[in-house]
């Protein structure tokens, strides 16, 4: 092989590695809803080509994609009754590889009775997490299960309600397991063990601590002032613990009403969180000095502030160049806005109605959003104004799930169906 050929082959391999990025956790490979993949953002009038579409009944679980498989949770009749089920699909064809029941769950168990509460939909809300050939799932009933990714064979299981004096909430668990290094982090245990870390290979307890009550929020891992930490959004507010041993680093009390499902957003030493039901959102600056850690509020905007409100109910925004982009709203089904909010001040830079409680991800310089009505929209990530690039109807049914990009494809699902769309550079050329 010549030097030129070697360099070309190496560059090609590197490019393919980047292009074929997995999306292994609820908030993606970077835990911030972003990916470095390049996709076609300008779509034909009919939208991107659908590579496959399959039934995916009930639930707001999103996809994770890893090792050529796509994972999500659905509802099915198993052994004569409704259960939430983890399914593994072939990422290229949608063909089901395996399914694993997680336990009984009745529609309405979580308080979502259908059209009255959320415009039509209920079911599992947690998203599977994939790491080193294993799939980790937290059920609505606070059962943490580990499966072999290829076969679906059960590896280990922990029942937080039974084994750790667990305390569920009225609408039950929606948070997804967080993998950080060799540990899997969850919350939902009782006093002195409400936040837990397990060895991801064996299920052995690495540490357990604290006395907190969960929300529907998935935790996030971040490095602040050189310390790797895991931040949980609990009913008392933000709770940050040392990733190694669970030691409390700092807390930020936060007014809480009924529920929130947004994951805290970290930018340097700023941490943003918000909640619906009239609460609102705000940012805190985290400092570390001789007296220890502190979390001091830098701004807060009430959820009753009308057009200036900064509140996420079910959605988690993404961060780009100091600005948050996402669905800032509360139960405005089919009409609620996507907004751009300056992180440093909480100022709304622009607002565009018509999305509902959907979700967004960040792909390069573009926001890819999935409305609650199943429309995929590509928007430029700029505070200068709302600049839509593409729009397409992707799935029918209610979508409180998050779109996922992996290997040149967008994976989406609703309470009725799941779909995979081709947004590769090759597709744009055809």
Task: Give structural notes.
By secondary structure, the chain is mainly β. It has one domain: YVTN repeat-like/Quinoprotein amine dehydrogenase (Methylamine Dehydrogenase, Chain H), CATH 2.130.10. 7% of the residues lie in helices and 44% in strands. It is built from 4 helices and 33 strands. The protein has helices spanning 3-19, 115-118, 160-163, 425-429, and strands spanning 34-35, 49-55, 64-66, 69-78, 81-90, 96-104, 129-131, 134-138, 143-148, 154-159, 178-180, 183-187, 195-199, 205-209, 220-224, 227-234, 237-242, 248-253, 265-267, 270-275, 280-289, 292-302, 318-320, 323-327, 338-342, 348-352, 359-363, 366-370, 375-380, 388-393, 404-406, 409-413, 417-422. The strands form 8 sheets. Strands 1-27-28-29-30 form a 5-stranded mixed beta sheet, with no helix packed on it. The chain has a 4-stranded antiparallel beta sheet with strand order 2-33-32-31, with no helix packed on it. Strands 3-4-5-6 form a 4-stranded antiparallel beta sheet, with no helix packed on it. A hairpin with a 5-residue loop joins strand 5 (81-90) and strand 6. The longest helix has 17 residues, at 3-19. The relative contact order is 0.14. Residues 1-19 and 110-117 have low confidence and may be disordered.
